[in-house]
Specification:
two-stranded antiparallel ribbon, mainly alpha, 98 residues, binds zinc ion
Amino acid sequence: MAFCRKCGKEIDDEAIMCVHCGVPTNRAAGAPADPNDTVNPGLIVLSVLVPFVGIILGIVNLSGGKKRSGSIYLYIGAAMLIIGGMIGVTSMMMMEMM
Ligand SMILES: [Zn+2]
């Protein structure tokens, strides 16, 4: 439960303005209530996990004699590593700005 910064009465956490006096809350001013709202931690995990799985699958297939599918998985893994790295760096930069 949040309190109005003007009249001090109780207002809903999700409210964008005070129901008692109509003053906008901090939420309406664009200040995030929780920094985790803007940076998705799952995205960072995914950016590490996806290339990891791709490379593992590539190595497993290569060692199992499946050279064609093995190299495809390695290519996917390498591509995901680049994409995942960019997502990870972008997410970290976004957190730095908080
Ligand atoms: Zn108020």
